[in-house]
Fold this sequence. Notes:
By secondary structure, this protein is an all-alpha fold. It has eight helices and no strands. It has one domain (3-191). It is globular, with a radius of gyration of 17 Å. It starts with a helix and ends with a helix.
Amino acid sequence: MHFWEILMVSIGISLNILAVTICWGAMLQTIRKSWVIGASVIVGLWQVMVFLIGHYLVLLPVFRIAQEQITRFGRVFTCMIFIGIGAYMLFKAYNAEQLVERRKEEGYRLSDALILALLASLDAFLVGLGMAFLGTEVLESSICFAVVTALAVIAGIYMGYWIGCEKRRIAYQIGGVLLMISGVEILVNYLV
């Protein structure tokens, strides 16, 4: 994959996290910069760790037995992953319930950031698998994924704080479209 493709997938996946952190920001009484930075580091590092697990799982000897068949299957699987996650994000955009925004006195704990990271882990794991099947450079992908995810957490908290959580639907829509475009691009460039 080219860098712009990796960046597009990273942004698409991270917009899911952005949508959740927009809601966090909308409910904060005050923003503590140390918490925002801690949350972005926790979520970013966890996402990269899960991404790497998915990426290196493909390198197990089981997958090396029939490399050519696995590679073709992996590319189809990757296409389905990106289109499937994109469709799910679009579904969430159009079926998101209206939230009542109330500022919380106590704010959030860093353990809440870990819970978010755990909930978003499946997407990162599947993307790691998919990018490994496409033979992407793991260091470049990991750095891009970590930076984009950390920035999504920071941006989401501040966006939610200033404009409320209704805009999370836009994040889901854009992320879903980006991932579906990535899936189609894989179909065209790697499978046809």
